[in-house]
Design brief:
Rossmann fold; 3-stranded mixed beta sheet; 5-stranded mixed beta sheet; alpha/beta; 3 helices
């Protein structure tokens, strides 16, 4: 009888120790969601004229970015997916919106519209973008390689360029990488804005 009582006490003690562990096993790490954010302009910055209507798109992104997980580069040819660090929306839509927001601050364009345009509307200038690379390595750099063109309302290509940009990460986590990618979009927008300003004089 004494042995049974001792066994019961030992069993209860073991269960008491295991319950917190079992509870922890049933919980996964919380997922963190991110969005690109272009840099806020300085208060004195104002777009210079002349003004025109501007269309952004189509903006194409590579297939490896068609996922919610943030993609980073590992050693060699390895690409890594972050299970608990994800985009809040598709990268293509997020990139396009961040670029549109940045350009609307940098050039005198009214309105600035995203592709596809409303029926019967054709902007004075159209910026089409083919993103080739948009990723990076944690704790190192974010990378952006994009080919892009500017066309007039008749479809004539006025500029055709390629941008290869690199931005250091200020930390070692995904938040720092996404912040660096946001700065890349802002730098890319400045290159496009400079080209638009030289064309629309």
């Amino acid at each position: 009888m004494h042995r049974k009582a001792q066994f019961s006490v030992t069993l209860l003690a073991c269960l008491a120790l295991m319950l917190p562990l079992l509870g922890a096993c049933g919980k996964s790490a919380p997922t963190r969601f991110y969005s690109l954010a272009a840099e806020a302009p300085e208060p004195e910055q104002k777009p210079a004229g002349p003004c025109y209507s501007l269309g952004i798109g189509p903006v194409d992104t590579p297939a490896y970015l068609d996922r919610t997980q943030i993609v980073t580069r590992g050693e060699g040819n390895r690409m890594l997916l972050a299970e608990f660090d994800q985009w809040i929306e598709p990268v293509q839509a997020n990139f396009s919106r961040a670029l549109t927001d940045a350009l609307s601050r940098m050039v005198c364009a009214r309105p600035v519209m995203g592709y596809p345009w409303p029926g019967g509307v054709r902007p004075d200038y159209q910026v089409a973008v083919q993103v080739r690379t948009f990723d990076g390595s944690l704790g190192k750099d974010a990378l952006l390689h994009a080919d892009w063109s500017i066309a007039d309302k008749d479809g004539r290509v006025l500029a055709w360029k390629s941008s290869v940009l690199r931005e250091p990460c200020a930390g070692i986590d995904h938040a720092a990488l996404v912040a660096a990618q946001g700065r890349l979009v802002d730098r890319f927008a400045k290159e496009v804005a400079a080209a638009l300003s030289s064309i629309a004089r």
